[in-house]
Amino acid sequence: MKAPRGASLTLDCRPARAYSACMTDRSHDRLLIVDFGSQVTQLIARRLREANVYCEIHPFQKVTDALLDAVAPKAVILSGGPSSVTEPGSPRAPQKVFELGVPVLGICYGQQVMMEQLGGRVESGHHREFGRAFVEPAGRHGGDSIFSGLFAQGREEVWMSHGDRVTAIPPGFEVIGTSPNAPYAIIADTDRHFYGVQFHPEVHHTPNGAKLLENFTWLAGFRGDWTMGAYKDEAIRKIREQVGDAKVICGLSGGVDSSVAAVLIHEAIGDQLTCVFVDHGLMRLGEADEVVGMFRDHYNIPLIHADESELFLGALDGVADPEEKRKTIGRLFIDVFDKHAREVGGAKFLAQGTLYPDVIESVSFSGGPSVTIKSHHNVGGLPEKMGLKLVEPLRELFKDEVRALGRELGLPASFVGRHPFPGPGLAIRCPGEITRDKLEILRRADAVYIDQIRKHGLYDDIWQAYVAILPVRTVGVMGDGRTYDYACALRAVTSVDGMTADYYPFSHAFLGETANRIINEVTGINRVTYDITSKPPGTIEWE
Ligand code: XMP
Prior knowledge:
The structure is a single chain. The protein is an alpha/beta fold. Helices cover 31% and strands 22% of the residues. It has 15 helices and 20 strands. Strand 1, helix 1 and strand 2 form a beta-alpha-beta unit. Helix 6 packs across helix 12 (399-408) and helix 14 crosses helix 15 (508-521). The structure holds xanthosine-5'-monophosphate.
């Protein structure tokens, strides 16, 4: 996974808060992204962060002339979006965007908006194109630095997702690249520095897309000086501004996200923050002590350690259905958190380590409503119940960026680099009914497996690895005796964001050695299997 080289902020534009551009960081050159509603607009920001460029995303409805004056961007990117410019009333950019005298890049719908507003033509419908395509060079593509490094192999692989297409370009523009379904796949007006691409340079499936975006920022004169350190300072300033002198509570799960959020907020407002760590008895070996120890010893953050394992394990007794498990845990979590949070008294805010993938829920291009595969455990029921407002300082970040921020905040590398661990914990790694015996066996098997992975230097190559204890017992022979013990499954996947995943290709030698160690060192397991299912069609967790 590539570590981010920089950072940027986007403004929170949820309706509950008055919209303003006053939070714009004026100490850096700013790139404005006008959001027309594409599923992948945040990926533009992410690519820019990787190029150490500060950017802000503003929804198109909010991009007024006044906002343009306030932000004073050094360049503008018009995002993709689900609308058709041929429909009456469809979104437009303020004409002033094209009068600022700064470079403008239109992506997909953004390109079509630019064409429509500058005197080109867009046609609807007949040439839908989704997925991989190839753009051939046309014209003098070497003439402008935004295209440097492109077409080195003769043509560019790109990701298309459009129904409409440009059919005529305004005076001053020229064609730089074409594809069979997009005759104006890349266009440029190199005098005014206006550019348009029909494809999505922000997605991984466009291999040179990040290069093109970075070139665009260089051409606009960005110095590439925006770093995760700057992100941290800006996030701290925003938290102080939002919270004032009110109290904040934060649910700590022991995972990287809530830990980074807590440490960041503590740095911003000190002991106005209290963390509540609910131990549901479904943590891994030694995990509860590790998390509580880190917060108490390392950071001196006020922390309530609520050992509620009896309550949770009691309620889960006899529950085998995965959704019922998840809902039971989620419900109890909210009750327990509520009970302990009231001890803090008068908190007005709830802090959460919500990440960007949690916000979009699905990265599908279609953007269609998605079915519930799993009810994710979180503290989502709390804000209404307790009349709390949310503080979510990681909302714009992806996992690897949160890790970079964690390192910036001085969290121990071993902690920041930990694999994700789900809120419902070991409950969803114990298919069928949960018993204390099974949990104990599972904890010990998991510890051996992770130890093996670390010893072989594989931990950081793997997104997530764990053992699931299976609800079957199998016959074995150890020494001269018969065994009748549980089977377990090893799981290890690679992934970028947890949305899709591939199983990790361990060597046979590694698998053999690990199976041997587990069977020898963990009483209660006599058979080890390796799960080679990718996601989709599987999911990362077993339940
Ligand atoms: P799945 O199993 O859906 O998991 O492929 C994708 C990622 O999400 C984690 N996960 C959860 N995380 N609460 C969480 O905080 C949950 O309820 C939950 N369920 C799954 C999972 O570990 C993987 O990283």
